[in-house]
């Protein structure tokens, strides 16, 4: 019985170029979000770079994040930042807007939002004040 290799989200949406567009658009929304902007450095250059590497790998592309930075260890890397339910929701809203603006189509849109939601839930480390 022949097995068919499932197309990755990364390839399905258009690869690294599309991931770059998504991340650039996403951080445009982050800069405007009063809940999120205090959590990020003023210069987002390095943050965007790491996000592009991570999302590429997370969605089935080359393992660029691991090659450059080692294992993602997302929760540990995010512990210094107070990630509340409101911050999670704001982050997901910005990502949702970015995916819509960059015309990510189904089934990739839903798969991306579902996986990012699970990850965002895992990153929460601070109760709402």
From TrEMBL:
Keyword Glycoprotein applies: no
Family affiliation: Belongs to the truncated hemoglobin family. Group II subfamily.
Protein keywords: Heme, Iron, Metal-binding, Transport
Pfam families to which the protein is assigned, alphabetical: Bac_globin
Annotated TM spans: none
MF GO annotations: heme binding; metal ion binding; oxygen binding; oxygen carrier activity
Cofactor(s) essential for the protein: heme
Name the record gives this protein: Group 2 truncated hemoglobin YjbI
InterPro entries in alphabetical order: GlbO/GLB3-like, Globin-like_sf, Globin/Proto, Globin_bac-like_CS, Hemoglobin_trunc
PROSITE patterns assigned: GLOBIN_FAM_2
